[in-house]
Amino acid sequence: MKKLIFLLLVACCFCYANEFKYRWATYTTYFNEHIDERQTNIKVAARYLDGFVLLPKTIFSFNDEVTSRISENELGTANTLVGEKRVPGYGGGLCQVSSTLYAAALYAGLSIFERKPHSKIVSYILPGLDATVSKEQGVDLKIYNPYNFRFVIRASVDGNALNISIFGEKPKMREIEIIVSRPEKQGDFIYTITTRRVFTSGKEVFSEIVSRDYYY
Fold it and tell me: How many CB atoms lie within 10 A of CB 96?
């Protein structure tokens, strides 16, 4: 049975490599590998995310495809951001996976249908590139594929590094740069971050404001 499962996994990887051979984006974030529960939660979420195929003109929901599929006994309690405070919470670390995916999706040129930043700046990713998720509070990350071909999401953990890559069936048509502004102070405790995405194809340049986020 184990040999059969191994052969199926090898066949699946071979299929992905042949169908999705064009890397559109990769993003990596890092975590403290000495915090066992958080590391476990990140690995579990990455495992459920890995291999998801995003069909043309469809929306990926992190809560539907990852959070909802994880059983209670698979996750541990780790620090999570609730409002302005960091408190121990069930599934702490899932937001690092959703944030890393969000950044990869931006660099891949995918459209963002729904995304919410944290209330405070987190340590593992640049402000403006984070994406919090909470099934209980109805906070989700939703990514739309505007193209006429499929993508596959690959997620893996190597030591203290979380790697998320997005591969397409066709080659990437434009170079993409993400520009995150310096924090602009608004009042005593609030900072504004503007995230812009720049598309370049030959001499043609198009830019858009992705988000304008506020952090305490």
Answer: 24
Q: Exposed, middle or buried: residue 61 (CB in 10 Å: 0-12, 13-18, 19+)?
A: middle
Q: Is the dihedral of CA 32, 38, 42, 43 positive or negative?
A: positive
- Rounded Cα–Cα distance for residues 62 and 54 (Å): 12
Give the integer Cα–Cα distance in Å for 83 and 80: 10
pTM (two decimals):
0.88
Task: Please give the pLDDT value at position 186.
Answer: 83
Could you give the angle at the alpha carbon of 125 between the alpha carbons of 35 and 21, nearest 5°?
A: 100
**Could you tell me which of 3, 211, 190 has the C-alpha nearest to residue 112?**
211
Structure-token pair, residue 198: 């720049």
More confident residue, 91 or 145: 145
